[in-house]
Design goal:
globular; 7 helices
Length: 147
Amino acid sequence: MNFEKTVENIFSKDSRYKPDAYEFVAAALHFSQKKLKRQGHILGRELLEGLKEFAIEQFGPMAKTVLNHWGIHRTEDVGNIVFNLIEKKFFFRTETDSLDDFKNVYDFESAFSGILENMGKSNPSSGEPAGKKGEKDKKVLQKPPIG
C-alpha cells in the first residue's frame, strides 16, 4: 500500500488529523534527517524541533494556524501521527521509543509566536537578512518519497 492510501486508511479510522498532517510530519522527518545528516531513526524530540523549524520555513507566521487546521495543536499530536504511521509500518521505532517522547516537548503558542518580528532580523544560517535569500533557496513542501 502506498503512503497516500495508508493515510486514507488511517484517516477513515482516526479522523483527528487531516491527511495533510501526515504528509507534513513525513516531510518534517526527512527535513530533520537531512538537517541532522542522518539516515534512519531520529528521536522524538529531534523530529519535533525539525518540525517546528520546517513549519516556520514553509508557512512563516501562519505555521501554527496551518498545523492547527490539520489537527496538530501540541507536540503529543505529532506523536500520535508518528505512532499511527508506525502501526502501518511506514515509520519504524526502536524498543525505547514511546508516545511519552512527544509529551510537552514545547508549547505551540510560544514556539510559533514572534515569527513576524523575527522575519525582519538576519538569518543566522546564511548571514543575510531574512526574506532576501535567492529563489533557489526557497523550500517547497513536497510529498515524501515512498519506499
